[in-house]
Amino acid sequence: MENGDPALPQIAAQLGPTAVKARVVGITGSPGVGKSTTTNELVRAFRKLDRRVGVLAVDPSSPFSGGAILGDRVRMQDHATDPGVYIRSMSSRGHLGGLAAATPAAVRVLAGAGCDIVLVETVGVGQAEVEIASLADTTLVLLAPGMGDAIQAVKAGILEIADIFVVNKADRDGADATYKDIHGMIALGGSERGPGDWRPRVLKASAVRGEGIEDVVESIDDHEAWLTRTGELTRRREQRAAAEIEALVVAELRARFAELPGVGLHELAARVASGDLDPYAAATRLLEEVA
Amino acid sequence: MENGDPALPQIAAQLGPTAVKARVVGITGSPGVGKSTTTNELVRAFRKLDRRVGVLAVDPSSPFSGGAILGDRVRMQDHATDPGVYIRSMSSRGHLGGLAAATPAAVRVLAGAGCDIVLVETVGVGQAEVEIASLADTTLVLLAPGMGDAIQAVKAGILEIADIFVVNKADRDGADATYKDIHGMIALGGSERGPGDWRPRVLKASAVRGEGIEDVVESIDDHEAWLTRTGELTRRREQRAAAEIEALVVAELRARFAELPGVGLHELAARVASGDLDPYAAATRLLEEVA
Predict the structure, then answer these.
(1) Where do runs of H (alpha helix) occur along chain B?
(2) Least CA distance to B62: which residue of chain A?
(3) A133, A213, B156, B208: least buried by Cβ within 10 Å?
(4) Scanning every residue of chain B, which has its alpha carbon at the shortest distance from the alpha carbon of A239?
């Protein structure tokens, strides 16, 4: 998936309807908030319920860090011998937007391979994470006490995407304050919610101690029941599918731009850079050639 | 620019070659590192040199925050009566990717309006910032002592995009340590640099006290001289123009998808969401209709 293998379309066709059978749960939050530990505990909890679990740890970090490979090894230890768990760290390998294309494809393959649930763990709270979180049926936002995360969450647009907030490290000072801050912000947004809308849950947990994880699992199940009952599940998934199709069309067109004979993207870009042509006129020219 | 006004193509055509006359300097770094203060001091320094300055403060935050409007007012105070300075805070207004389209267009208009230099200040160090920073001829990365920024910079891929590092708040404890950390990381990357390549500068400053700003201006000028001498300026600007053209083509195709008669994106997305069709097959169908 990550390398954009040419066999992907055939694989996708062979997966058939199994590709959409898994529930997709996004887990996001700032670095240091305890995402990996929480993911690990959620895997354990879902396994107790006999559900097969896939984990995609999405790390849009520099190819320098080599984080993905090391990450895989560390994560594997707790579930290494469990055939009902598949864990994969995905790195962007230097391609901006690469993960946006590879992640939904990987989710489909994990579903096709029999995972009942796919956890997509994303690093950080930038725009890229908001985009990746939009892959999920249910999005968990993790916070830790005293990190100013409540404010950062608002800034990064995280508040709008969270279905469930988890204040992790709940045994630490400031956990109650963070808990109240989040509740306050949800109340502020209350006027925009209709009577049947989902009201984001706020939970406390200590993933290191394994405390509060059952409540998180229960809220995930409740959210899924709400999604199904209201038709929101279909709406979210259709939106996700539309974005995926668009991304594939754009990728194909990019490839066509590169192969154009005559006045291609490269020459048009040189003229725009020199001020000889404006970008809108260049885009019109390019469209005439490919579309 | 932010609203994607239909008159944009005409305006762009009228700007002509003036649209590429300004130097574009990106300023990025984590929240709290002193970006606004540094930008403010840079404006002051460039004005002393009698250069006209445009500032685009790019804030990809939630429409909730209203930060852009407040920000404008606060920023304006120091330069409110100076006709040689134009400052604008741009917010994404809820559109992912909206800033990626609007920012280069705004840079062109500011250049056309006579700005010699355009400072593009971006919030945070996520992927969106890396993408926006790629708009710049010269990219400044701001760091502050004791924020763990050196490590975060590596994680976020900031190291690769920085032409000049500025350790701000240099009077604080830990400034020397941060300075050394960055120097160490640049040395580590040294084997990948050829003899004529730009070696990132590391400077100390205290923007609040107005200290070290002249050195920053000097390094920006040195970097521009290097860009011009090596032809790298043309290369970067052609890359930027290509990305801008592609983005416009994609936007136009999105609009066409929405207007398609018969089997449009919406219906294909519904079939993909239900597992009836795979996304690659759907993309192929869509391409046949528009291209």
Answers:
(1) 8-15, 35-48, 67-79, 98-112, 127-133, 149-155, 158-161, 175-188, 213-230, 232-259, 265-273, 279-290
(2) A157
(3) B208
(4) B269
CATH of domain A8-231: 3.40.50.300
Task: Supply the pLDDT for residue A66.
Answer: 39
Integer Rg of chain B from CA: 21
* pTM for the whole structure: 0.68
- Residue among A20, A64, A248 minimizing CB distance to B275: A20
Q: Domain B8-232 carries which CATH code?
A: 3.40.50.300
CA separation, residue A140 to residues A59, B15, B92, B96 (Å): 17, 47, 23, 20
Chain B residues with CB-CB distance to A264 below 8 A? none
Residues of A in contact with B270 (CB under 8 A): 238, 241
Nearest residue, CB atoms, B275 vs list A17, A189, A280: A17
**B35 burial type by CB count under 10 A (0-12 exposed, 13-18 middle, 19+ buried):** buried
Residue B118 pLDDT class (50, 70, 90 cuts): very high
> Packing angle between helix A279-290 and helix B232-259, nearest 10 degrees?
60
- Closest CA relative to residue B132, chosen from B244, B217, B4: B244
User: Which residue of chain A has the CA closest to B153?
Assistant: A62
Closest Cβ opposite residue A278 in set B13, B131, B279: B13
Confidence band of A92 (pLDDT split at 50, 70, 90): low
